[in-house]
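Internal QA ticket QA-208
Title: Verify multi-chain structure generation after dependency bump
Assignee: T.L.

Test input:
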Amino acid sequence: MGSTTPAVEIVGLSFSYGARVALSDLGFTIARGEIFGLLGPNGGGKTTLFKLISTLVPLRQGDARILGFDLRNDTIALRRRLGVVFQHPSVDGKLTVAENLAHQGRLYGISGARLRERSAAMLEQLGLTVRAGDLVETLSGGLKRRVELAKSLLHEPDLLVLDEPSTGLDPTARREFLNYLTDLRDRQGVTIVLTTHHMEEAERCDRIGVLHQGRLVAIAPPPELKSRVGGDVVAIYAREPEALQKKIAARMQVTAVLVDGTLRVERPRGHEFVRDVVEAFGDEIESVTFGKPTLEDVFVHLTGHRFHAGAAEDVG
Amino acid sequence: MSEAGLQAGTLWLREITRFCRQRSRVIGSFLQPLVFWVLLGAGLKASFRPAGMPAGIDYFQYLYPGFIVLVLLFTAIFATISTVEDRREGFLQSVLVAPISRTTIVMGQALGGTTLAWVPSCIFLVLAPFAGISLGAGAAFFAALIMAIIAFALTCIGLTIAWKIESTQGFHAIMNLILIPIWLLSGAFWPIDGAPALLRWTMRLNPLTYGMAALRESLYAGNRGEMGSLPSMALSLAIAIAFAIATFALAARTARRAAAY
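Actual output:
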């Protein structure tokens, strides 16, 4: 907003928890007004990156400028322009919605008439006005999320950082939440950076960075990432996938990749391959799926791993 | 109001609001020491008279200031437990990314804890006549002031521990190992004079001993003859204030160095 410096500029950033490397040698830029998604399975490093950008954890290795502020030395100045939404609730259940907002405002140095005006505006925008006097602990999960968002936007930040924002939301509430974020960017030019392991959420971003084992393996708009997968994606489920893999290679000269027990083939005109492979090995195949590449396929293509394999938990 | 004042103020207000909405905490923090004082005092008064007791004072009276400090101690512990809960439940995250220094956060928490400890102890002060102590307005005010200083120091010790550890379970263990012994060795239960040499020295080195002595002197005000050999008021007050400042500095330093989990 009114500034030409990028929202996020990261160079040579690494981070370790003791001996465990969480992020290694990241470098990327996020433009002002962008909706940027950090996509990756749990443990991929995206929450660590969120903690660094949100100033929760100090930067140790590498350089980062957020909204033009040096992440190492200008954290207090940066925080005034930064809104943060955590994965785990940061609202106080024993306070009312209005009290939570008032408390948040004062932490950012806002008081008096301006605080009342900003609180009223946020309550209105997020449809919380009628619940303003209710204790937060009595609200539903979706409403609590909205209070979190109202809290983080009260001081009119230029950059909003969200960690797994749709955790615990049902699909409808998730869609509403994403609509609101898009609207926020469109109307107020707020830059939005979110971490996610939901493909649906990632699809809605202007660009996504794919994090795998602490490395940024790709960064591009979702359609471009999908175009990197060679044409269509065919997944074959078989009783003996390894045997079938060899037979397909021998008879059809096609390389099928074995990913967590499923044979995957990426190729143009996939429907013809489906016909051929079923004709040739119908007895050995349990099922075949065919489709345009999804971001999930992109992840497999980039890393050779299934996205949700080994993920600790998947909410929704 | 300055920004830091506004920030510390809102943290203080939140502590008070939460406390008032948890009625069992309000009642428990006050009733527990009261019951202990009545039972211990009544039970021991008849049969127990420690060596070195000031003349003209029975054990029930002797225990009274000790139990005022116990009220302060218990509520300070409860108040600092909320810091551990804030970390666990996530509330503190949003405070940590706000444009507020860790020292200001600790100041808000310390003032909140101090208030929560101090108010019930003032109710306890109203019971002075039951201990056979007649308090004028001036003496009561002075005693309340000393209680606030002690409450602040105890809260800051609690905060130092709360910023260091992760579970409330660990917190209880450490509290029992550190805070209760500090209280026991402050002259709450027995006078310094009658204790064995080693214990006497430990008590003299215990900073809380001086806060306790200042409180005792303010309660028995004007009856210098009843003092026994307590340290002078000036020394007691000076050490009590220095202790409060030092514990705050320690809590703020611990908070500045604490990792944001």
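Spot checks passed. Chain A has a mean pLDDT of 89.
Status: verified.
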